Amino acid sequence: MSALRVLKSTEFDLVTIRRDFPALHQKVHGKPLVYLDNAATTQKPSAVIEAVDRFYRFDCSNVHRAVHALSDRATMAYENARTTVKQFINARSEREIIFVRGATEGINLVMNSYGRMRTVPGSEILISTLEHHSNIVPWQLLAEQTGARLIVVPIRDTGEVILEEFERRLGSNTLLVAVAHVSNALGTVVPVKEIIKMAHAREVPVLLDGAQAIPHMRVDVQDLECDFYAFSGHKVFGPTGIGVLYGREQLLEGMPPYQGGGDMIRSVTFEKTIYNELPYKFEAGTPHIAGAIGLGAALQYISQIGIDRAAAHERKLLGYATDLLSTIPGLRLIGTAREKVGVLSFVLDGIHPHDVGTILDRNGIAVRTGHHCAQPVMERFGVPATTRASLAFYNSKAEMDALANSIRRVQKLFAA
Amino acid sequence: MNLNLDDAEVAELYQELIVDHSRRPRNFRRLERATHHAEGFNPLCGDKVTVYLELEKDIVREVTFEGEGCAISKASASLMTESIKGRSRTEVTRLFSRFRDVASGVNNADLADLGKLAAFSGLRGFPTRVKCATLAWHTLHAALDKTTSIVSTE
User: Fold this and answer.
1) Chain A residues within an 8 Å CB radius of B124
2) Optimal mutation site among B13, B42, B70, interface A, most CBs of chain A within 10 A
3) In whole angstroms, what is the distance from residue A141 CA to residue A79 CA?
4) Which single residue of A87, A172, A177, A384 could bond A126 by disulfide (Cβ 3.0 to 4.6 Å)?
């Protein structure tokens, strides 16, 4: 039975919710799967799997093209998904919702279109030490090609962005602030509202990389007043290969297309092409229709569970797991910001994360080990890699116990 | 050591010899009089190793290493240095080829000629970890070839 029909009270019914995620109910190396790699990708509820299946079974057709019934149904479903996204992040209009492949492409779109249009030699892009490579490398490309400069705001030992340092680096040359809403490697929730206020006071637009925030908290782009917000569908219980770039309509209107092709044009002659209106101007070629529909289903599923309720459950779980891991001698948590989502990045004395990951895997526990596509963060903390357990609302206290027990077994194995 | 593991494959991978060499790597130092050396890097996990060789008429007189990495990569580098000392270039190449086959589970039939290196036959159940074990060997190979560029597993 689906959680959607059962959950009426304010109770967070974990057993019912877990039933909605078929992949969670399997054994790995003979042990029940404990999936704690949610910051890499999340598992999908049946509602998403079925929405994608339904599209390919019954409605498979191209969008915005033909007059036949299937194309009409596909277009409706695709555009309904856009409306769902708009409502989920409280954008003003569907014109502000651009479907892309993921947060990475969303950031690259802004870099290529807004960045190239506005950059002059000496322009500065402000990021923080916390960024995922996807919010570093695009700006380095822009810098290489245009003479712009990348300015990096440092973080504290807790993994928090230093706001005063941020303000100090904002100046007349700042073209754009591009920061993570939540750090993927540490779980830090960045005080983006303050950052946006500081930037807007100097008329600098702000792009938020929301890939790690969107599955964990209510995101309201009007309340945040951000100018761009990028996120990936697969990290919020939707399919891979689909994501969203939100942009303020006024900014998007003034930006040149990112890619050229079909669907993004109104009329084409060899002399002159007139671009389509928003958001289609930025959606060249046949989009990932099934992906968008699946993402719409994922966001509806979360809305029906209640993002605030899910976040409250995660917060309790994070507190429980943090206390539990803190009792393990020789374990150091990396990332201890006051405002955090469910990410537990840690190192064990004398034991390499790679070995930890292998042994946890044999106990059915899926975690990520490595640099988490955030090498500057690893460098900041002087570690080559960490083990990262990342939570979703379907995780349980029992799974946190399993994690802690397995870590103790790893330590036993490597004990002198 | 009492491993106290109910997973036989984990126990085979992290057997006493490997854990011991990872904790107390042998020949773990820079070799000032090295005639050959090379650096190896696994960008996926960040493992780094530098292998130093002192060759005299194609015989490995001395071999040491430095670096950081997981237990498998450290133990592999450590046991590699022990097993190639005094061997000729041709013997080292043959050993590397045998080691690679055993680590990737291609040929586990006869481990007798491998000596302590046979401990790595436990890797066959862990295909994602084979690169950890072969990094030092690839780096050694590059050092023998006098390759000065950085070796990468990717």
Assistant:
1) none
2) B70
3) 33
4) A177
Q: Which amino acid is at A165?
A: E
For residue A38, being part of any structural domain is answered with no
Nearest by CB: A413 against B5, B126, B132: B5
Structural domains of chain B, count: 1
The pLDDT of residue A95 is above 50: yes
A44, part of any domain? no
Mutation target among A355, A361, A367 for the B interface, most CBs of B within 10 A: A355
For residue B54, what is the domain's CATH number?
Answer: 3.90.1010.10
Which of A303, A320, A347 is the endpoint of a domain? A303
Q: Across all residues in chain B, what is the average pLDDT?
A: 87
For chain B, the residue count is 154
pLDDT band of residue B6 (cuts 50, 70, 90) is low
Pick the closest to residue A207 from A292, A103, A281 (CA basis): A103
ipTM of model: 0.85
pLDDT at B153: 67
Q: Quick one: what percent of chain A has pLDDT higher than 70?
A: 97
- CB contacts, 8 Å: B45 with chain A: 354, 369-370, 385
CA distance A10 to B34: 70
Q: B39 pLDDT exceeds 70?
A: yes
Contacts of B154 in chain A (CB under 8 A): none
User: Can you give the residue range of the structural domain that contains A373?
Assistant: 3-32+306-413
Q: Would residue A373 show up in a list of annotated catalytic residues for this protein?
A: yes
CB A224, CB A192: distance < 8 Å: yes
Q: What pTM value is reported for the model?
A: 0.92
